[in-house]
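### Sample
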Amino acid sequence: MAGYLLSIAALLFSTFLMLVAGGLAGILIPLRAGLEGWTPTTIGWIGTTYALAFTAGCLIIPRLVRRVGHVRVFSVLLTLLSMSLLLHSLVTQPVAWMMFRAIAGFSLAGGYMIVESWLNERVTNDTRGMVFSIYMIVSMVGLLIGQYILPFGNPATQTLFIICALIYASALIPTALSNAQSPKPLTQVSLDLKGLYRRSPAAVVGSLIAGIIAGSWNFLAAIYGEQIGLSTLGIATMLAAAMIGGAIFQYPLGRASDLVDRRYVMVVAGIIGLVLSLAMVVIYPGPGWTIYLLMFLFGSVLYPIYSLNVAHANDSADASEFVEVSSGLLIVYGIGSMTGPQVAGRLMDAVGPSGLFITMAVCYIAYGAHALWRIQRRSISIVVDQKTEFQFHSPEKQHTPETLQFDPRSDTTPAQD
């Protein structure tokens, strides 16, 4: 087993470095934008262009990989990521940052896709769960470490941007020098969003709402922390607390969804998210242990809800449709991620920091209420052993489609929930 893990060690190390840089960039860019005096709405536009480019990358990059191969495209993408951070440090202007962040979104989509394609090629059914568990651990540790680099520099200067660019560039070295075999050419699959909705409305609508929540959080949480008076270390700790909460609670939620109708778990997640969001608005915690505790609890439904959607959609899919289902949900999730920063940013402009969690509260109401409505509308008993086993997917790293091609199908596909 040690020899097997050694064969993918270079790829995992590249992933770790890429996520360290991604964790730092994710907190550094909105925080610096806030220090520049840009409004949450403006910062939201930066998040929207990132999400738009990320979604576009899922559609375009597979075609590039088919033309020139995984390693070459991966090298180009990491170079673009490094360039995007250097450009941020050179030009401090909102429209320019939207374009620079779009480069990063496009490149990260491809980076995740290539890494996961590579891992899928190297694993067997007997080792897949172990390898992807290690992959998730490596990714989460990388993100956490990246966030905690922030207190060691001044966001108002160029230093942290340069450090982030250097880490992105260094992520290329392990994979470029590895003698591991590259994965096979990507397989073409179709994308049918209309058919996916007919099959699983709860999963599609849930993925859209999950995208709105994640987009709002990813691009405005650091601004929220700054506005309530947290230091850079405090902001990093706040974000880390939410991530740790998501890592701990994803298994109980996932296991519960394996034992009962997943839509009931969606309803419970919506209620928990609503209560915690309202608590953040009413209590309005400032610096101190309360904010970290609430963020830890909030993370319990912030990160796992997308995985509930994926698992629920795959319950009614054949094995040959898993990639298509995940691809379609990712596109819907990306659309939500484009919308979230705009809505939350405008509310923060209007009512202050609590606007972020007002947005979250409305989203969680919609998430739980829609799942409950689907249960009442179409009550179907699902035998537990017929379900797809729940698997955790980080919102930042959904399993990306190998190739997407729109392929409308007959309107007679029956809905499954």
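The longest helix spans residues 322-351. This sample (MFS transporter) is used throughout the tutorial notebook.
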